[in-house]
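Practice record 12: protein with protoporphyrin IX containing FE.
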Amino acid sequence: MAPGPTRAGWTDVVRLLVIGMLPTVVQGACLRRPLAVRLISALDTHAWGCRILDDLRERHGPGPVLVSVFGRKALVLLSADDVRRVLSETNVSFTTANREKAAALSHFEPGALLITPGALKAERRTFNEAAIERCVAGPWFHEACRAAVEEEIRPLLAGHTLTYDRFRAAYQRIVRRIVFGDAARDDERITELRDKLRSDGNWFMLHRKRHRLRAELFVRCRRYVDLPEPGGLARAVRATPAAAEIDPVAQMQHWFFAFDASPVADYLTLGLLACRPQQSAKARTDRAYLRACVMEAQRLWPTTLALVRDSTVETQWPGGWTLPAGTAVFSASPFFHRDARHLPYADRFEPEVWLDGRADAEWSIAPFSHGPAECLGKEIVLSTSATVLTGLLGSDWRITSPHRLGPGRPLPRTADHTSLRFAAGRGPGPG
Ligand code: HEM
């Protein structure tokens, strides 16, 4: 008999689908549903999902496991070495344009780099790199971002309490100003359109495409690029040459969408720091440390829950078996980021791992991915997050909701940012 990968038995398939996948689908893959986020956090579903993967690895060893559901095959990775291999062979043997991911994202960003298959991907990546780099290298951009953040964060400091809804509303204005320029500050319709289409994306291929809404979103977006003096990333888009098959506005949709993970990570970072006065004091004055705190929040509660690929050619695997082209390949970030068998710091808040090279050495810890499809927005995101948090840390905050984010016990695997609340001023808090 020809050698093959370990195949998950039907009980494992059911466990993976119901406990591993279902919570992600229920909370929304493209747009989080707040009630579902609360429910899955209360149940700490990621802890259950991680246990299943850990159990598979215990029983079958570190090689990947093949799962088959209604004829669709997916290879579930269980070792950091395999994650490194798949990420580094992206665009060679594996594509980021996985079928299910493309079905979800094409509701609002068809033509975006992340879901571009084949040779066109390199051209679109070059355009994305050039436009984003133009901003990162330009002092005008950093100055505009700093001004946008400071202006939008100021009203939050005036209030005595901080809720996620207030924080996110302020962040939406920041994101619009950074992506489309100051002219978009109050364009709530553009955010509404994006989020309506994202909620369609939560249904993958099961939801019909709402072409009229998407056209309206793209027209609104193009208007900012076509302004006499565009601002933010729109200014760089205007100045960056694009070949006919690259729609710059489609690329911008991804930037606009992906930026929505920042308020989640920053808000949880604030929660972690609110329970740790010494680390909070350090983060106030040491920007590199503060950025490491944001990365650490992303490690503990990754906003991208899985790195997914489709194989594009046959690949050979240890043990002598061959994976056919067209198979999905799946790396669950909550599992690898908290792999207690390999990471002594798995369930602790330890920003130092981002400063001494320990986290970067592990490719399976990948909030912004690694390799040829690594996130191009990382610098803009971290710089924005550091400015937001520096502003907020000007006040002392304590948690007033029953979240347990303090030291002294393992941090939960699933966190609910939506009901996390703060009050200004030190005090005991639940921590
Ligand atoms: C907290 C915010 C963000 C997080 C956590 C994040 C994370 C990621 C991850 C994990 C990937 C790779 C997915 C994969 O390997 O399959 C990715 C790709 C990408 N990100 Fe981000 N991202 C964020 C914000 C942004 C922003 C603001 C921009 C643009 C300004 C951006 C631009 C991109 C692009 C263009 C890609 C596609 C790369 C490719 O396929 O070659 N991201 N991001």
